[in-house]
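Obj.: predict assembly geometry.
Materials: sequence records (below).
Method: joint structure prediction, all chains together.
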Amino acid sequence: MQIASPYLLFIGDTTNQLSIKMACSAADWRPELCVGEYRIDGCTVSTGIKKLDIRQAVAEGAKSFILGFANSGGVLDKKWFPYILEAMEQGMDIVSGLHDKLTDFPELVAKAEQTQQKLLDIRQPKLEFVTGTGVKRTGKRLLTVGTDCSVGKMYTSLAIEKSMKKFGLNVDFRATGQCGILIAGQGVAIDCVISDFLSGASESLSPNNSPEHWDIIEGQGSLSHPAFAGVSLGLLHGSQPDALVICHDLNRTHMRGLPDSQFPSIETTIALNLQAAKLTNPNVKVVGIAVNTSSVSIEEGQRICAQLNEQFSLPCVDPLRDTADSIAATLV
Amino acid sequence: MQIASPYLLFIGDTTNQLSIKMACSAADWRPELCVGEYRIDGCTVSTGIKKLDIRQAVAEGAKSFILGFANSGGVLDKKWFPYILEAMEQGMDIVSGLHDKLTDFPELVAKAEQTQQKLLDIRQPKLEFVTGTGVKRTGKRLLTVGTDCSVGKMYTSLAIEKSMKKFGLNVDFRATGQCGILIAGQGVAIDCVISDFLSGASESLSPNNSPEHWDIIEGQGSLSHPAFAGVSLGLLHGSQPDALVICHDLNRTHMRGLPDSQFPSIETTIALNLQAAKLTNPNVKVVGIAVNTSSVSIEEGQRICAQLNEQFSLPCVDPLRDTADSIAATLV
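Observations (raw structure tokens):
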């Protein structure tokens, strides 16, 4: 699967910034691949890049029309079909990270055949997996884990990869979600794998490698999230991480989407993840804490990170405001 | 989905008793639905019921040809095609609990159309699921959890249901695997659900019910199994159990299929499951221990159960040798 670039990021009429993380992640981490974003009336959020419509984007060379929004359940609303059909007519492939498959809609398949464009469901794993084995692999692995969903695990992983590359380390980012796959051009959408193969697919994502090589694996969900902890645990066991980085967003009081839920402390998150990770790697350790401090001032964010650093004796940073150098330095 | 009875249980040339648990479970729990088993040269195991070939079974009224074996990965070996084709020609539907779908093989689909027989992939969930919510449901739930895979969680669940019915309780067995679905005629093969919907599918399996009603939910895998713990955790969170029963097989020294793995103690299994279950039901408790003692004498098995009973202050039984009355009695 190869996604043709550059991209036009379609964010529709979205009003929730968390819902366009697919578009934002491409705009933030691979701006050179994005000609612009396309938003329609009613949209109140933005990726921050240039606004274009379909014709303008094609004139600037856009090759892929990215469905840059998500929703719980990953449903493809038919109200977007006119935009998708027009994009194909104008010469773009369609890229979706939703659960619903583009290729399940005859109207879209017919247009794709007529226009010779591709329908790419990047969330649908194309590979055949086997069940997990728990057998130790060579090379080293870091997994980002979270207090909740959508707290910055992918961004943290990418920031750590960036810092490690700067330090001259041999490192690869391993994508486990649609946003990461859009950025990396490959990976496995782990929450779309059949449950029986969760750990096996996770094992295949970071295969045997040279002893000094690091895989930086994008975490998913949270062991404390009632809906998604199973996915988090399968990924954790299959990843066999040597190093964990705890990710947290200051702006949370309950688990994403569940107003009545309890939010876990960082202590609890460390304890739960270390306990579970030891099943497949007894030598696992936590090497840092990454905090999304965007809900407070820079100074307040730094104060909180310094406090967490002291409390846990671990590097603690906002990887976007500060870089992840201090965490990457523990891996040299 | 309705499975036509009676069944012919096909166990092929299997040499591993654990691999024919689908056939055995039907023979043990619904003997009135089974006309016999069909085994071929090389087979060294048995369900213990009458041996018949396809023609003999049809003469005795068999309506469904059950693929009664399983393997890691759930692959359908093409060497079984001649038997499947003959069964359809003789007037039987085909029932499979493998991951590989009967309906994905054009040769089988063509024969099914020609003979007007059905291909039933009971492991493939037909329902559409949503992601989990963690919202508390009415009614009461018991989940069986294990030290390992294949230690008797389904048998224990069925034995508890049987004892509870004897006590006049309002109870339903909820099947989560292909064997249970064959027995119950409905259910969700939870390890075949897309990971994102693990908890949501588990929630849908035991919906709101009357306050005194009990669902006895068949557990899957083990929180200590490197390959399948994610499935176990999603099922645990979605089930919101009020009561847990710990299942164990005396005849294990390592996790199924993983010779180098560590086997968890019953203490560890209790602690891990209670800790995780409290996320969606803070009032959860362990109400019993079910031990498969078939590897030792009846007397030795009873001695071990008595010792565990004393050690944990919980009813401890071999539900097949002793019934599960003492566990069911805690739920009256």
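Conclusions so far: Chain B touches chain A at residues 72-74, 99, 130-135, 190-196, 198-200, 224, 226-235, 237-238, 255, 257-258, 260-262, 276, 279-280 (CB under 8 Å).
To do: check interface contacts against the pulldown list.
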